[in-house]
Amino acid sequence: MQVLTDYTVKTGIRELLNTIHNYELGEDFLGLIMGIHIKITEEQKLSKMQKIIDKRAAPDTIELLTKSSNALGKEIDFGFLADSEMADEQRLSEMQKVICELSEAYTIEMSRFGFSWNWIDRLFESQVEHTAHINVVKAAVEVYLVVAKTGQLPETLPEGLPKDPYSGKDFDYEITNEGFMLRCRVKPVNERKVRQYEFKVKK
């Protein structure tokens, strides 16, 4: 695990994975980059590209593409997506060129390490999930300490608590009838809802 961590930090793969997991279109974009490895069909590839093109006006779309390409050591100008004079066919053609370039860059980076994408993806997701469980318990303990000292739940989370690894931000905190809830702010990949953890407080 430490070898993987050192490698991903050094090469930018970790930055790529973090970026992918924190954006709505991240999974679709990753599928395009990984098309060679996960064997998506040409029809699926075109569908994913069209989905990104259709949402090009969303502020986080260009941000996702730019951060992902930078993580792979590529400085790509995605201005063509916002070019109102460009026809859809041209835009799709440009997107295909970009995906091809990023896919090659990713393949080169991964070949240096020697692990398959599926193995790394599963390991990365497992690590993030494990970190979420540890961090949420640590945060809950601090809330319980406030209750022990003051006799009541705090209105907001204390400062400096472990973060939600899915978003890099504080857990969402909610006081409930039986205690309190800590909730991740970003849902894990391939899951419909964010993870939430309920804690009870004796009255």
Task: Give your account of this protein's structure.
Helix 5 (42-54) packs across helix 7 (88-113). 58% of the residues lie in helices and 7% in strands. With 203 residues, the chain is mainly α. It has helices at 2-11, 13-21, 26-33, 35-38, 42-54, 59-71, 88-113, 117-150; strands at residues 172-175, 179-183, 196-200. The radius of gyration is 20 Å and the shape is elongated. The chain folds into 2 domains: 2-115, no CATH class; 127-200.
Summed up, the helix count is: 8
| Amino- and carboxy-terminal Cα gap | 43 Å
Main sheet strand line-up: 1-2-3
Q: Which radius of gyration do the C-alpha atoms yield?
A: 20 Å
Average pLDDT figure: 81
Shape descriptor reads: elongated
Proportion of residues in β-strands? 5-15%
Give the SSE string.
HHHHHHHHEEE
Oligomeric state, counting identical vs distinct chains: single chain
The poorly predicted ranges are: none
Given the helix and strand composition, which structural class is it? mainly alpha
Sheet having the most strands = 3 strands, antiparallel
Helix content: 55-70%
Number of domain units: 2
The overall strand count is 3
